[in-house]
Design the sequence.
């Protein structure tokens, strides 16, 4: 997706071979006009998909999911990382290794928010190890619902996440796939 | 705002005099169509306001902020509760008492994302003690920027947050103000 590649070339800061700073438009600050283009593109690529709900994980995934949901006309549910639910609230729990904090974390979704009739589209901003998306996948399966597909804005192909998700049969759409990045001259190789 | 009152009457679960469960449409699951109505209403109420940026706090505030930003044509910045920034990233920090976890927490915003030219609209979903909004306010002031106003979907008037924010001179717009709620018969008194 050219518009996103262009933005990465202009504003993405390559810290090293693996780390990319995109907090000016995709991560900590959201360019909502850009997000609308990304949302439209998800809808174009998943035009044939039946979707009743978008599921994401806090925090930055929420922004892209909400803008994208407007093109699918479905609500957004997000998995929480801390338990703020009341005692009597039944939740689905899945565990994953957080790339940011390097610790095992639980994510939780109230049981009442996903059921066996749901066809769920998973959305996140960046795909690295895929641990977060795999945990969302597990929650959907435990709810007896269907994972329709998964969409990410940026896939870093030098991590295994994309490969793992495709292997388990997920229909994954990555709007931009980065094969490699060079911190010295600030260039990307896109797939 | 009648549409939101109606939704509270139908789907809000009053746990006790202070606690309200709205995770079916405003908190953990987002009804994006409703959010568009809320965003439009913020724009109507703040029609005369100069806004260059919307600032919110993770996580659920992000959803309402992103949809609302479409009516103001500005980007959204969110304050993080955990430090995931790189070592060399300069951040504004403010401390607040979290109503959910009952502990003092830091929130952080990269310095490069707000500057003295910004006119900032603060957005959040629910206003109780106002501690989170006050911390956002502090960050904007420390950045030398201006707080144009603050908008919340629901203000619980039996907490002091609304009063405190108005006292410090914030132009606060609450789309629905709950004076009291009755857990026994499930009714609300709106202002």
Sequence:
């Amino acid at each position: 997706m050219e518009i996103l590649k262009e933005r990465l070339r202009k504003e993405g800061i390559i810290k090293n071979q693996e780390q990319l700073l995109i907090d000016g438009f995709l991560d900590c600050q959201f360019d909502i006009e850009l997000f609308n283009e990304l949302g439209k593109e998800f809808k174009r690529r998943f035009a044939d998909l039946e979707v009743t709900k978008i599921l994401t994980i806090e925090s930055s995934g929420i922004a892209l999911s909400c803008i994208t949901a407007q093109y699918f006309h479905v609500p957004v549910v997000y998995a929480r990382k801390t338990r703020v639910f009341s005692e009597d609230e039944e939740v689905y729990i899945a565990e994953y290794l957080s790339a940011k904090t390097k610790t095992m974390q639980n994510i939780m979704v109230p049981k009442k928010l996903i059921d066996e009739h749901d066809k769920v589209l998973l959305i996140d901003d960046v795909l690295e190890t895929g641990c977060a998306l795999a945990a969302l996948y597990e929650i959907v399966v435990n709810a007896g619902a269907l994972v329709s597909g998964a969409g990410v804005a940026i896939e870093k192909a030098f991590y295994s996440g994309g490969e793992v998700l495709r292997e388990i049969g997920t229909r994954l759409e990555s709007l931009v796939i980065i094969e490699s990045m060079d911190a010295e001259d600030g260039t990307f190789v896109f797939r």
Chain B touches chain A through 40 residues (CB under 8 Å). The two ends of chain B are 11 Å apart (CA to CA). The helical segments of chain B are 2-11, 32-45, 60-72, 131-142, 161-167.
